[in-house]
Amino acid sequence: MNLELGLVHRQVRETARRFAQNEAAPVARQYDEEGRFAGDLVGRMGELGFLGGPIPRPYGGAGLDYLVLVVTLEEVARADAGLASAITVHVGLNSLTLLQWGTEEQKRRFLPPQATGEKLACFGLTEPNAGTDVAATETIAVREGNGYRLNGTKTWITLAGVAEHLLIFATLDRGQRHRGLCAFIVERGCAGLSTEVIRGKMGFRLANEATVYLEDCVVPAENRLGEEGEGFAIAMSALDVGRLCSAAMAVGTAQACLDASIAYARQRETFGRPIGRRQLVQQMIANMVVGVEAARLLTYKAAAARNRGEPATREASLAKWFASDVAVQAALDAIQVHGAQGYASAFPVERHLRNAKAAQIYEGTNQVQQIMQAEFALGYRGVQPLRCMPPAPESVAGGSEVGFDVPSGDRSVRPSSAGCPRGLNMG
Ligand SMILES: Cc1cc2nc3c(=O)[nH]c(=O)nc-3n(C[C@H](O)[C@H](O)[C@H](O)COP(=O)(O)OP(=O)(O)OC[C@H]3O[C@@H](n4cnc5c(N)ncnc54)[C@H](O)[C@@H]3O)c2cc1C
Questions:
Q1: Which residues 6+ apart lie within 8 Å of 322 measured at CB?
Q2: Which residue out of 363, 375, 394, 401 is catalytically annotated?
Q3: Average pLDDT of every residue of the chain
Q4: What count of Cα atoms within 13 Å lies in the side-chain half-sphere of residue 122?
């Protein structure tokens, strides 16, 4: 297994690193303190191509691979994971789900403006009474003529306050539990759709979490994603990518905590010597080193499985669980290394802790990931083939026309009609 990053991965990482260091990090503290959604930085990420990286060129993206997505997320999360979550949700949970399950017409219509960031998109699964228990979804969809009438409430939906395209999961029959679920692309402007931004969050203050109200919202049948009753499979397949992205963000957060701790421990002196010379401080830094390295390897392994066209359900869940726990512990230790300074916002480590905690909750709580891992190990759970398997990326050697700094000699991406293959319906 080759663990080296390729030329394009390194170039994209450098672009993302420059953006994070020069544009995001300098304002992150102020935005966090004001609880201000970083819409301007999300727009800039669109200009840089971060919102279309893995989307094939025919749909306006760059056709790059999952490892490119991972290194981009890592670098942006080093500045702020809440900012990086816009990529996770817009690209990982929405655009790549449309790419996997959408009809050709849906992909041609919705993906190009999403790939450039002209229109933002979100993923609306969670409800006030249905988080972990997705099958308890109460949002109801009633067939009506050539469309569906939606009623219900979604909550904690990242980007929902600003998204133009909302991927909404609703039930056609509550008695059918998860088999009754169906996915819809709801467009902003649809009568009966309204959103309300959630205030008072512990972290993710640069992000935009909102509650979505659907009151007699009529969605045309051509906006249904997948078949009736396929909503649960679509949601779970989206979460495979979401967990890979969450793992990458957690690696970035943990790396930022390690970087800050090393810098501080080298210059802060007690008893005439830098605290970096104290073995108990070294122990915290050593724990961060092994945590970051192991979390990154699990994350890259999951990305490699996605690059082979596998769902990577087990790998992404493992990476998300491990990396998010590593990030929380790294942030706690980083605060300890900084002493009282770490307890205030002048240094970024307390913000990293508040952000890191969210990753133990979203995309399935870490309790859910542990149950999944045990069930995989015990043989109670396997990966079932889907009607629409995730399309493998076009190329890992290609460049982009949407902003990545790739030399012209490397622009060798092959166009592809990646999408839903026929004949894999396992019923
Ligand atoms: C910052 C942030 C962003 C988010 N963004 C999105 C988004 O974009 N889209 C979206 O749809 N959702 C989003 N969410 C919601 C998130 O996915 C849910 O919060 C999560 O799935 C947990 O659901 P819940 O909060 O209802 O907790 P519950 O399901 O009520 O769980 C509460 C506790 O009980 C535990 N628990 C529940 N059932 C079991 C069980 N069977 N066995 C063991 N323990 C169990 C859980 O692990 C947890 O500790 C976001 C959340 C946050 C914090």
A1: 247, 294, 295, 298
A2: 363
A3: 92
A4: 27
CB atoms within 10 A of CB 142: 13
Listed by start position, the domains of the chain span 7-119, 122-227, 234-378
pLDDT reading at 72 higher than 60? yes
CA distance 208 to 122: 10
The count of residues in the chain is: 427
Tokens of 150: 């939606």
Of ligand 1's listed atoms, the one at least distance from the Cα of 366 is 47
| Better pLDDT: 71 or 422 | 71
Ligand 1 atom 44: residue of nearest CA: 367
Domain 234-378, second-level architecture: Up-down Bundle (1.20)
Would you place residue 2 in the very low, low, confident or very high pLDDT band (cuts 50, 70, 90)?
confident
pLDDT in tens, 172-188: 999 999 999 999 999 99
End-to-end CA distance of the chain: 35
Query: Does 1.10.540.10 match the CATH number of domain 7-119?
Result: yes
Per-residue pLDDT for 409 more than 50?
no
The label of the residue with tokens 């900084």 reads 338
State which H helix or E strand residue 337 sits in: helix 313-338
Phi, psi at residue 156, to the nearest 5°? 60, 40
Ligand 1 pocket (Cβ < 6 Å) reads: 89, 123-126, 131-132, 156-158, 204, 209, 358, 361-362, 364-365, 367-368
Contact 50, 72 (CB under 8 A): yes
CA–centroid distance, residue 133 to ligand 1 (Å): 9
Tell me the CA distances in angstroms from 322 to 85, 100, 351, 358, 359, one per residue in order: 18, 27, 20, 14, 10
pLDDT(418) > 70: no
Would you state the CATH architecture of domain 122-227? Beta Barrel (2.40)
The model's pTM is 0.93
Q: Looking at residue 20, what DSSP letter applies?
A: I
Mind listing the pLDDT tens digit for each residue in 306-321? 999 999 999 999 999 9
What distance in Å separates the CA atoms of residue 136 and residue 395, rounded to the nearest whole number? Answer: 40
